[in-house]
Amino acid sequence: MLEYDFLINVWFILWCVIWAIYLVVDSFSLGAGMLAAFMPKNAGQLVQFAKSIGPFWSGNQVWLILAAGGTFAAFPLIFSKMFTWLYIPMMLLLIAIILRGICVELIYEDSNKNLQKVFQYGWAIGSLLITVVLGVAFTNFFRGMMIEANYVYAGTLLGLFNPHALLGALLFVLFFVTSGALWVAHKTTGDISGRCVNLAKKTSLAVAVVALLYILALFNTDGFAVNHNAYPVFYAVPLIAVVFALACIALCFKKSDKPFCAFVANLGTIFFGAATGVVTLYPYILKSAINPEYGVSIFAAASSPLTLTLMFFAALIFVPIVLVYQLWSYTRFKDKIPEGEY
Amino acid sequence: MDIVLLSRLQFAITVFFHFIFVPLTLGLGAMVAYFELAYWKTQKEKWMKLAKFWGNLFKINFAFGIITGFAMTFQFGTNWGLYSEFMGDVFASPLALEALIAFFLEGTFFGIWLFTSHKKPLLKAVSMVLVSVGTMISALWIITANAFMQNPVGYEMAADGSKVILSNFVEVLTNPYLWNMLVHTLLAAYFLSAVFIVAISGYHLLKKSNADLFRTTMKIGIYLMIVTAILLPCLGMFYGHYIGGVQPVKAAAIEAVWESGAEKPMYLIQIPSDSRGENIVQLLGVPYIGSFLLTGDFRGEVTGLNDIAVEDRPPVAITFLSFRIMVTLGVVFILQALAGLYLVTKDPAMESSKAQKYMKLMLYSLPLPYIAIAFGWAVAEVGRQPWIVYGLFRTSEAVSGVPAIQILFSMALLVLFYLLLFVLFLYLMKRAVVAGPEEVREHA
After folding, report:
1. Per the CB < 8 Å rule, is A54 touching B92?
2. A26-44: per-residue pLDDT in tens?
3. B117-162: per-residue pLDDT in tens?
């Protein structure tokens, strides 16, 4: 059997990786969803929008269930506290997930135009709400929460939606919208494709500005940079994110006929941006803003060695299998989607 | 307001709503996979039409079903935090494995199936087979988790008694409760799907639209009905004996047995009263059957509820009535299946006036298996009370310390939202049923 501390650390890394993969792969379906509210000029373009993510989004969303289930299996205490303390945001997230999921799956129903409108806006509102809750939640995790001794939570609902968290929500929205716009631009032809690239040019610039403010605010937060200062090598992570962000902007403008390159660069920014944040959490996942020692650490929350070992090997076997068939699924739908007649 | 009660109510609402969609997903998925495979093999248009029509109904049902399952995962954390902390080491692994092995398969290949045209019949068929396999693996893992709550095995207590720790995963997987429950749940799901298939096929046969197509599914539906309707009580009997052994208090509540003793009769008419600790009405006893149902032995010794402390008893009347409703419906189902078998053997075209009446009856009977399944789950979960993990951990100790007002808010929101969704679901299903195979448009 593997050594316990080693297993716990491995599970922290897996936790980070699974969340980062989720944010990357759902970024473009959520972004496309938000844009679906106002970008399509007619039903044909709406269906183009939906079809660009139609075959992929449900598989991508499972990474969120795995992230939640993985937290539960590896760190039950953290799962419990995270969901209890964020009760209302989590419930909103739940409703948003159900709303998005049902609407996006049924949006092709076009015999009833009113219903299709409902699905269109349901998809958009659901996507926006998911993105906002994720942005608010992660900013609070990065900043640290109002945790007192013995895991007593002293925070308030309003406190969760502090200005920094709202900035985080805006950043997530911009990231995902850029992702979605570039993906739709890549997957479609005609009017909508061009307009999406143009939008991405603006939002990729906006990402850079908001991300800069957001990061400055984070590094100004007490205790945020402890791990970075202890291991300066971690400063490379935000730098990589910056390189990807600049590459995304450059590719948006220089290679606007090939939006896929800018799309990949934006995913890189999201991945390393998320990594910048989660690196600072260690050895906690729920940090305390009151006193670092009050946080819920991975060592206090970890499951037994047997459970961690079992789940580690399950992840080792199945995560690569999932990645292979999910990537393969993208090769099945390579054709660009034209604007249909509706 | 009591947060335990509120949390239980919210969980019950969300899980019952989710389970409206689950059984049909299991049964219909397998049937659509069969049609897709048949089309790939034979290239006969009939199979493609069947796959399109039933696949469209599957799609709507699946879209509502898979996503409403999120509600349970969330609530383990939001409302049942202390339960999650106490049980996480054993209980969460099956949930994570369900996501890793089943949900990815279902989610990814559902997308591929939906967006692949019948010009690629092999990819279409293989995708649907994988979705269907995914739904069954999913059932396996979630029932593994539930079986642990009913009959905890393969664990040991932490030294400080604060939580359970996994000691033997193989025992968790070979828990006899799991296999009893899984077989029962799957059979019930296939029975419900069979009734759905018979009802919808009958609707089109009555309308005389696409009679050749719907005669095929009528036959499949009736054969599936007869097999599952008979297997359910036969295997259910062993399930009952098993519960009598591992959950004697639940078993006593199921039959409303208050006094311990051997050679117990079963009363056909009974009204139990929790507050009085006895049956107000108790008529028409059938000798020895009570003992047999609970122990598998006509002379078997049964523990009565009055020998169990009041705080360790489940709500007896609810458990008892739920079980009686389920079993009564089970008897109705056998009669319906036998009638169907008789009619379809005599008149495969289902054109006789008796067959026509039967098809109308089955259309209106469609809610019955849904009701039976809901009451079946009520027996399993209400009968498990007051324990959240049988004999180990009380439901009242398992909740998160969330202010009642927050739970009220989320519950109100969920109820309103679910009502809208349910109306939408019925509207979409009805429209898809009425439209028939010609009007199904493929996404690809």
Report:
1. no
2. 999 999 999 999 999 888 8
3. 888 999 999 999 999 999 999 999 999 999 999 999 999 998 888 8
d(CA B429, CA B192): 16
CA-nearest of A165, A91, A145 to A288 is: A145
- Residues of chain A with Cβ-Cβ distance to B90 below 8 Å are 307
Residue among A84, A322, A326 minimizing CB distance to B400: A84
Per-residue pLDDT band at A342 (split at 50, 70, 90): low
Size of interface A-B (CB pairs under 8 A): 194
Q: Find the residue in B nearest to A104 (Cα).
A: B63
ipTM of the complex model: 0.91
pLDDT category at A135 given cuts 50, 70, 90 is very high
Residue in B81, B82, B90 closest to A83 by CB: B81
Please name which of B18, B127, B47, B84 lies closest in space to residue B397, comparing C-alpha atoms.
B84
Q: Which of A310, A339, A8, A140 is nearest to B93 (CA)?
A: A310
Radius of gyration (Cα) for chain B, nearest Å? 23
- pTM equals 0.92
pLDDT value for B444: 65
